[in-house]
Design goal:
mainly alpha, Hypothetical Protein Yqey, Chain: A, domain1, Arc Repressor Mutant, subunit A, 2 domains, 7 helices, about 75% helix, about 0% strand, globular
């Protein structure tokens, strides 16, 4: 379904001559193809939607880092371009969990996995990634998990 949505968005953006959206969606599709090649190496037909959502989360994170660097270098034009790409990529991600929702989900995952200490952090992260790919910032989730397990 995500793949069809990307293709349809690309077609619409091309028809309306929205260059920024065309470029951003093409980047997503290129990343999707890379993930598909990786999946074929593992014996799968194509990458799962969860893998694609995680890839898009990574793309957003990279762009946020770029924005910070561009702002430090007084290149607002490039920062604006990166922000535009973030806006396009975000259209394809599910609703992001806020801090309170994320903490509740993490507490449930800790209880479900039976995690008792920092050593069990990997189990909790794996459970969260399986259920909430694309819905939370796993960097921030990691900090919350450490806090709760410490």
């Amino acid at each position: 379904m995500l793949r069809e949505e990307l293709q349809n968005c690309l077609k619409e953006a091309m028809k309306s001559r929205d260059i920024q959206t065309v470029n951003a969606v093409r980047l997503i599709i290129a990343g999707q193809k890379e993930k598909d090649v990786e999946a074929r190496g593992k014996g799968l037909a194509q990458a799962s939607d969860a893998d694609l959502l995680a890839m898009m989360q990574t793309m957003i994170k990279q762009r946020k880092e770029s924005i910070q660097i561009y702002k430090e270098g007084n290149r607002q034009d490039l920062a604006d371009k990166e922000q535009g790409e973030i806006d396009v990529i975000s259209r394809f991600l599910p609703k992001q969990l806020n801090a309170d929702e994320m903490k509740a989900v993490i507490q449930k995952a800790i209880a479900d996995t039976g995690a008792a200490g920092i050593k069990d952090m990997g189990k909790v992260m794996a459970a969260l990634k399986a259920q909430y790919a694309g819905q939370m910032d796993f960097g921030a989730a990691s900090a919350v998990i450490k806090q709760l397990l410490a």
